[in-house]
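Recap from last week: sequence in, structure out.
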Amino acid sequence: MFMLAAGAGVAMYLHAPIPIETGIAASVLAPGLLVALARQLPMWFSAAVAALFGLLYGYAHGLELPESAPAVAYAAGFFAATAARISPALRWVLRRAGISRCPGSWA
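Predicted C-alpha cells:
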C-alpha cells in the first residue's frame, strides 16, 4: 500500500485524473460498514481494497504539494512520517500474531 501511495503521488505529479473525494469517502465508509456488518472478506480482496485506498490517499497528498517545494523533499518527508507512524503499529500486529521478526522490515 505504501508503494501504491507513492505511485499515486507520481501520478498526481503527472496530472493523471483520479476521482479523489469519492474514493476517500469510500475508504472511510466501506471499512466502517464491513465492521458494522461483521463481514470478513478474503485477505487478497482486503489487500487490494487497502492498496486502492492507499493510491487515492497518495494522490490526494500529492495534490497538496506546494508550488515552491521541491517534490523529492516533500515526498521524502511524507515517506519518513508514514514509516514512523506505521512501524510501531505493524510491530504490534505482528507480535500479536506470534511473528517476532519479519524479514526485510523494521518490525
